[in-house]
UniProtKB/TrEMBL annotation:
The keyword tRNA processing applies. This is tRNA(Ile)-lysidine synthase. Belongs to the tRNA(Ile)-lysidine synthase family. It catalyses: cytidine(34) in tRNA(Ile2) + L-lysine + ATP = lysidine(34) in tRNA(Ile2) + AMP + diphosphate + H(+). Its main location: cytoplasm. Ligates lysine onto the cytidine present at position 34 of the AUA codon-specific tRNA(Ile) that contains the anticodon CAU, in an ATP-dependent manner. Cytidine is converted to lysidine, thus changing the amino acid specificity of the tRNA from methionine to isoleucine. ATP binds at residues 44-49. The lineage of its organism: Bacteria, Bacillati, Actinomycetota, Actinomycetes, Kitasatosporales. It comes from Streptomyces albiaxialis. The gene is tilS. Keywords: ATP-binding, Cytoplasm, Ligase, Nucleotide-binding, tRNA processing. Its EC number is 6.3.4.19. Residues 276-340 form the tRNA(Ile)-lysidine synthase substrate-binding domain. It is found in: Cytoplasm. NCBIfam families: lysidine_TilS_N.
């Protein structure tokens, strides 16, 4: 008799991810001796990441992959340090090694607590992965998480890239893998239950003070009540379609940018673009070129919103002698005759 369907689903998803890791490992220059690749699982103790850890512990030795784990203590709740140590002990009991519990300090910025915690968490995961030479870090985001991300992107009105949700592969050198983007949250919880894996439900996930929590417990259920079942699957499918479109447009924009750049090679924190060439581009491509230019000049990508790009675009499409435009990160954009100059700081 085979495993429960939920257990089979999570193991299959992880097996596919590990096959990709092995394929990439085998294409690297030969080492002497060549160690098996190490894959870490990032685990909070919740059902999604505990299911992921259990599947990794089962599949890794069968494929000749070393498997370890890491849990991050954000220090945002009472007892978080003890809970992190408990999660680390659970990972070790599954047979994972090495296992680390890492405490981080979450900075308070204008980006908000969710973004601040995420920034600290990924910095910690990067450090652990680098120190151990890990080939990949597995993250437990599910299809439900993807649907929530798409809905949040839709509410922000940030365009196709925002609607593309989370990538299955991301980070430096494709470090982060999300095997569960095609697995629903109910399956991960069921897999933990049938395997008698203890899970911890983060109270932040049910706190209406957090935007994602409101989307999860209020917005999506309301949509499913009004539109019927299948909203989560449709939103996740939208993410993949949008990602394909966004990738194609980004490639087009990269090529178009080379044709309209007029700045001297080697200039730093300054990008100069030909306004005539820019104006001739399709709007979707032109806005991507403008965004790329602003980021190259020093604007933080996370603070550069659709309204900033629209204001830059008006320097081309609705030019009436406007003054220089201030962008995040002390970057400004100014039209100078037939050129659009995006630079860091003011020359005045």
């Amino acid at each position: 008799m085979g495993p429960h369907p939920a257990v089979a689903a999570i193991r299959l998803a992880v097996r596919r991810a590990l096959h990709d890791v092995l394929t990439a490992h085998r294409t690297q220059p030969a080492q002497s001796p060549s160690p098996a690749p190490l894959v870490l699982v990032a685990c909070s103790g919740g059902a999604d990441s505990m299911a992921l850890a259990s599947a990794l512990a089962f599949e890794a030795p069968r494929l000749g992959v070393r498997a370890g784990g890491v849990t991050v203590d954000h220090g945002l709740q009472d007892g978080s340090a003890e809970r992190a140590q408990d999660v680390a002990a659970r990972l070790s009991s599954l047979g994972l090694a090495p296992v680390e519990s890492v405490a981080v300090r979450v900075a308070r910025t204008a980006a908000g607590p969710e973004a601040d915690a995420r920034e600290a968490r990924y910095a910690a995961l990067d450090e652990v992965a680098e120190r151990h030479g890990a080939a990949a870090v597995l993250l437990g985001h599910t299809r439900d998480d993807q649907a929530e991300t798409v809905l949040l992107g839709l509410a922000r009105g940030s365009g196709t890239r925002s609607l593309s949700g989370m990538a299955a592969v991301s980070g430096a050198r494709g470090r982060y893998l999300r095997p569960f983007l095609s697995v629903d949250r109910q399956s991960t919880r069921k897999a933990c239950m049938v395997q008698s894996l203890p899970v911890w439900d983060d109270p932040h996930n049910a706190d209406p003070a957090y935007t994602r929590s409101r989307v999860r417990h209020e917005a999506l259920p309301t949509l499913e009540k009004a539109l019927g079942k299948g909203v989560v699957e449709a939103l996740a499918r939208t993410a993949q379609l949008s990602r394909d479109d966004a990738d194609a447009l980004d490639a087009w924009a990269a090529e178009a940018e080379r044709s309209v750049r007029t700045d001297e090679p080697g200039e730093r924190a300054r990008v100069t673009l030909d306004t005539v060439g820019l104006y001739a581009l399709p709007p979707a491509v032109r806005r991507r070129v403008l965004r790329r230019a602003a980021i190259e000049a020093g604007a933080p990508a996370g603070s550069l919103f659709a309204r900033h790009i629209e204001e830059m675009d008006r320097l081309l499409t609705a030019w009436r002698g406007q003054r220089a435009l201030n962008l995040p990160g002390r970057v400004e954009a100014e039209r100078q005759g037939g050129r659009l100059v995006i630079r860091h700081g003011s020359p005045r």
